[in-house]
Amino acid sequence: MRPRLPDMYEIGMSYLGQKILSECINAHPQFWAERVFTPCVETAAILREHNTPLATLESDTPLGEMDVVGISLTHELCYTNVLFLLDLANIPFRSADRDESHPLIIAGGGATFNAEPVAPFFDAMVIGDGEEAMPGVLACVEKAKEDGLSRDELLRSLINVPGIYIPSFFEDQGAGQPLKPLIEGYESIDKAVVDDLNKINFPKGQTIPFNAVHDRLTMEIARGCTRGCRFCQAGMIYRPVRERSLDNLDEILTEGLAKTGYEETSMLSLSTGDFSALDTFFTQSFDKCASEQIAISLPSLRVGSLSEPIMERISSIRRTGATLAPGSRQPAVARRHQQGHQRGRTHRTCPPVVRQRLARRQTLLHDRPADRDGRRSRRHRRSLSQGARLRRTALEKIAGLGSGIAFRAQAADTVPVGTAKHI
Ligand code: SF4
Questions:
Q1: Ligand 1 contact via 239 beta carbon (within 6 Å)
Q2: Exposed, middle or buried by CB within 10 Å (0-12, 13-18, 19+), for 58?
Q3: How far does residue 35's CA lie from ligand 1's centre (Å)?
Q4: How confident is the model at residue 226 (pLDDT cuts 50, 70, 90)?
């Protein structure tokens, strides 16, 4: 089995999902997971020049010789990289062109909730959490090999694994029409959900990457978010909210730091400030991290969700990062996006952050409340200028502090990743 990232190593190694899946698969003695990332174009050219197929990082085994290749579709922009990877591995693009001599190509990740654009390229897709689904898939592959089953018989056995979508068992009836099920009893797919995160193996001895974007001990403290902001796909697809217990988190932190030697840890979730026991966990972890000068990073915060005592404690350890998502300042737009009215809260939250010398990444949502005919409304123009003013003010305040700062501006009513503009 190979968890594969259709992103380059520097990005892929920062992604916690592949580490969690590798841990879950490798916990079974009969399975073994290795990693593969998209090579840069120069490396790909060298591979092609020497007629060398893409191979795994750990054992340098060509992808085509594996039983299963699992690809994490974390966002739609990586779709073309999937074909790039298959091409480099000399694996036919389409599921219909592959046979028993090829590995099973499986997709997972958030983008599979809109599966159809890439459905012809995959034999199966995991819709939802992969921690229990992937070992289930591998068990079916193992049995199929033992029993000498055909590829079609193997796919039929995967129907029983929760969360598995097999595109070839549905017929495309054209744009706007529902898919037609071809197998009786397999008409719909329920999302795979891990009920209790505490029962899932979490990677404490995380592989130390070389030049990864995020090089730190990442702890997933919770999964899911119930805020329901209308522009947010993750808030919808990762429901319900599930939180790790404090004992489990303490074990991950203690063991993780001891095994990796990291000097920074990150408390990850969709909305970290909404973790119900954040104050307690932070207090519990603070002494441990402070004595070792280990920085704590809070990567995803709604404005007003973090208490000032926590901010003060973070800044007293070492300069580190906090990501604030202020959302809309226009009451009508905030209501429309179900964000709650946040006018003024951004300004009340930001000054302490700046004062405490934290590197700050801020996402500004430029509202387009009446932009129905494609033109910017007066309110939209005013919102843009407010955003620019906020950026200028923050830059002026931070200029004398020597902190790193990154701003991202995006339109609130379009896909965030595609419209991001880095300033
Ligand atoms: S709070 Fe954040 S993660 Fe939750 S729904 Fe809103 S944007 Fe999404």
A1: no
A2: middle
A3: 30
A4: confident
